[in-house]
Amino acid sequence: MKPFDEFVSNKMIIIASFILGAFVIYPRIISLPGELFYITNPGTKVGYVLFFSFRYLFFSLLTWILLTVNIRKQDTLVFTERLLKTFLITVVAYILYVLFSVAVSKHADCFTGLLLFQFVVTCLLCSFIGHFFAMYSKQRKQEHEIEKLQTEKLQSRYEALANQINPHFFFNSLNGLTALIRDNKKS
């Protein structure tokens, strides 16, 4: 039986990453039309939309990395250890985001509470998903082991019963043959 994480394909992780990326930046998605309405310069609008697209792709990529690490690379069931590793990756991603944001955009919103909240949500969400997969995989392995032990137990009981019955059939067959031989000699 395969562990549960082998049933999760890379395609499923990518799709989940795009969905979770949209979920994480949902407050920015909601405010996008209003912010674009107040921007009058067409060049600034294009830059804003491009930076918004970058943010979405960045969070989708971060989510993909964290899900891949949590589902495929970490086999620990200790949640704090999983959370710490995920947090370290998230901090590195946040630093990269801040550096890119400051270098590219004049209106760098990389120090807002909303952005920090989005990184924290991404970290926690991916940690919980990875922990769920690890626990489910462990449960499936234990169920498989129990099923295997029950099968072995039934097999050994069957063999013990067969070993008890076979000598009786052999003895009865010999008695039957002996009786036939005696009857044959008398006739």
How would you describe this protein?
The chain has 187 residues and is mostly helical. It has one domain. It contains 5 helices and no strands. Helix 3 (42-73) runs antiparallel to helix 4, helix 3 (42-73) runs parallel beside helix 5 and helix 4 (79-104) packs antiparallel against helix 5 (113-186). The longest helix has 74 residues, at 113-186.
Task: Explain the layout of strands and helices.
Layout: H1 10-24, H2 26-38, H3 42-73, H4 79-104, H5 113-186
Question: Can I get a quick summary?
Answer:
The chain is mainly alpha-helical.
* Sheet with most strands: none
Radius of gyration: 33 Å
Q: How many helical stretches?
A: 5
Beta-strand percent range:
under 5%
Number-wise, the strands total: 0
Kindly state the mean pLDDT as a whole number?
82
Helix proportion range? over 70%
Structural class: mainly alpha
Kindly give the count of domains. Answer: 1
Instruction: Please mark out the parts with pLDDT under 50 across 5 or more consecutive residues, or reply none.
Output: none
Secondary-structure element series: HHHHH
Shape: rod-shaped
End-to-end gap: 65 Å
Q: Main traits of this protein?
A:
187 residues; mainly alpha
